[in-house]
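Hey, can you fold this one?
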Amino acid sequence: MNVRTMTVAEVLSTGSQPERTCIGCRKKGQRSQLLRLVAEGSGSSAVLVDERRRMAGRGAWLHPNESCLALAIKRRAFGRALPGATGTAAVEHRITSGPAVEVAAAAATPTVQPESGSEI
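Sure. Predicted structure:
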């Protein structure tokens, strides 16, 4: 019988997080550390970043850094992971701008409260 025993450190380090493989560097990482990418569909060849990890269809995973993006482009990994997908502009924009820019832009938008009409 081939049974592998795990040490306490191995159990604690892996936790209960699912692991995914980056299409750029091919290293495994926790799902929370990677970006999920999906093909746009509807006849388009664009690759989209699935921020909420809820979009339908086959997904691919990528570390959110420029080196993994460059490796994925060089290895033509997008076309293999997501058949027919070649347009990576949205992924490149997301990685180069970073998540902080998107959050700051949303926070800069003023909130408009509707008038209730009872102030007159």
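The helical segments are 8-14, 66-74, 77-81, 89-108. Let me know if you want another pass with a different chain boundary.
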